[in-house]
Amino acid sequence: MIGKKELVDLIENSESEKMQGDKDIWEKHIYLDNNKVLIVGYEEEEETDKQDPEEETIKTYYWYWELRDSQEWNVIFENHDKIFSFCESEMGTYSDQDRMEDIVGDIDEAEICTWSEKDLIKDISEDIADKVLEWLSMIQRGEK
To answer: Domain map of the chain by residue range?
Structure first.
């Protein structure tokens, strides 16, 4: 079975790719032993109302991960609990990457995205690895 350090490294360093479709979804596909694939991704949360393009828009994303059979693509275990989320702010054609405070004044992103504490995969990679290793251990014991 894969070790935690190696799994964390794979989670952090594998390339993400945009999934086809209308939704903003990015995933990493990490192939493991015994025909298992770990999918780590993030998805934009559905907006409930139309936002004014002249106003600041905040997009919320949530992290998820799944363990699948790499042959049949069946889900074995999944975590779509929206425990870890992050957000990005945009105003017109400017985004977080353009330093939002330069456009709208001196603001602290923490004040905008108060729930956004897990922006980067490295912020949650150990949590994901712990859960995946638990799942793999359950499979090994024949519990699923």
So the answer is: 4-140
Global pTM value: 0.77
116 closest CA partner among 100, 94, 134, 130? 100
- The pLDDT tens digits of the residues spanning 120-144 come to 788 899 999 999 999 999 998 887 6
Angle at 84 between CA 104 and CA 47, to 5 degrees: 55
The whole-angstrom separation of Cα 67 and Cα 3 is 16
Query: Do residues 110 and 10 lie in contact, with contact meaning Cβ atoms separated by under 8 Å?
Result: no
Outline where DSSP puts E strands in 4-141.
17-18, 25-32, 36-44, 56-69, 75-79, 85-91, 94-95
What is the DSSP track for 111-123? HH-TT----SHHH
Structure tokens at 84: 């870890």
Give bridge partners of residue 42 from the DSSP assignment: 26, 63
45 DSSP 8-state letter: P
Q: How far apart are CA 47 and CA 70, in angstroms?
A: 32
